[in-house]
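Friendly challenge for the regulars: who can give me the structure tokens for this chain first? No prize, just bragging rights.
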Amino acid sequence: MAATALPPLPPQFKSIQHHLRTAQELDKREPVVAYYCRLYAMQTGMKIDSKTPECRKFLSKLMDQLEAMKKQFGDNEAITQEIVGSAHVENYALKMFLYADNEDRAGQFHKNMIKSFYTASLLIDVLTVFGELSEENAQHRKYARWKAAYIHNCLKNGETPQPGPIGMEGESFDVEREEAGSSSVQSEGTTQPSSSSTYEANNIPTSNFTGIHIPPGAHAPANTPAEVPHNTGDVRLTPEDFARAQKYCKYAGSALQYEDVSTAVQNLQKALKLLITGRE
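First reply, four minutes later:
Bragging rights claimed.
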């Protein structure tokens, strides 16, 4: 990654410190996701404060990191094409969410699954780089953030968490207190998460996602091929229709990289329905 180290995080940028830490953690195994985490932090930081000297200095160094990553991964279409990048980040966030959700529903409560729920919610924040969140992703983010808080607080209080979706009331999660020695992002290489709380990609089962029930409002059932109407020959598609169909195909391709057949099929069927009927 870029050699440019970040200066101390200004207090004004507290809300983006965990996105930056996630970028550090993913630099080696998921550099594309790490890039967009930094881009999100950059865009959010600019909105918060781009005039105070310490903030301008921090944002300038962060911009240097982004430029260095662009040069390093300039031939990666997930960096050069937003539609591919969006699909890549979304599928990685979903993969992390499903890992944590699977552990939760199996009653396997531990720090890695709490961290995975919370990090999935951060990565859904990052998706706002590409535009407004879908209702599905907004529900995922709300649920994941609440689950992380709920399970953490249960374990902290010596209580047994209840698996699966339950009422989302009154939980808060102070991540900083739980990550000793990492209350702020200082520079690349100086702030490292403890191994006990680090999400590891190889902890995730990659072939059993299709049977998992996602919380209410998350995934609607995909159409079966028999439910896709036949083209009557008089449907006129707009350039926007073609762009959306292309987006769904890109999402499907990215899902297949993670062996997530269910998501791939769902997106391909969405593209097919759009091309045949002109409607989603």
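Residues 143 and 215 are 8 Å apart (CA to CA). Confidence is low (pLDDT under 50) at residues 173-232. Your move, everyone else.
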